[in-house]
Amino acid sequence: MNENQSKLDVVDKALARNLDWIVAADAKIPPVFAITVAMLGVLVAMLPSANRWTPCVAILAFLAGVALLLSIACLAVASFPRLKGPKGSIVYFGAIITKTEDDYIKEISMGPTSELIEDIARQAYRNAEIAAAKYAAIKWAIALMFGSIPFWVIAVGLLYCSRLPGS
């Protein structure tokens, strides 16, 4: 195995690991989204008519609702694809399609050159940036969802009690 092939194996594994981190981040979005939307749905379904609002319930419901909506916004940020990649790359799909098929095949057929190794290393770095951004957004979404729980539980409990006969 030559030196270029050895370097290529290292950067290729780094790229694969970063792509796995992105997949793992994306897998966290649906369950957090489902829980957050369900909590928001229960809160909205329990809202009373305007004449039955109390300041305490209004504040608690507002805080829970805002936190849940912000959580959904963070999940939306995490969900959006990041399409900016290294220009002229023979690895990044956005750059590949700017070439003709024959030019791409000629470039990729040259084997593990130092340019290819650098290209994959740049792609691995870019995917690390993407993974970090996704995890930061998901972290905020989860924190906001969990942060809303005390306000949500109390608000839903008070709203439920206000619907009982005699209240």
Gist?
With 167 residues, the protein is mainly α. It is built from five helices and no strands.
Low-confidence regions:
none
Structural class: mainly alpha
Beta content comes to under 5%
Q: Give the end-to-end Cα distance, rounded to a whole number of Å.
A: 80 Å
Reported for the largest beta sheet, the result is: none
Number of alpha- plus pi-helical segments: 5
Count of individual beta strands: 0
Global outline: rod-shaped
- Cα radius of gyration in angstroms: 24 Å
What does this structure look like?
There is one protein chain. The chain has 167 residues and is an all-alpha fold. It has one domain. It is 78% helix and 0% strand. It contains 5 helices and no strands. Helix 1 (3-46) packs parallel to helix 5 (114-163) and helix 2 runs antiparallel to helix 5. The longest helix is centred in the C-terminal third of the chain and has 50 residues, at 114-163. It is rod-shaped. The chain starts with a helix and ends with a helix. The mean pLDDT is 91.
Keywords:
167 residues, mainly alpha, 5 helices
Write the layout of secondary structure elements.
Elements: H1 3-46, H2 55-79, H3 93-96, H4 101-108, H5 114-163
Helix pairs in contact: 1-2, 1-5, 2-5
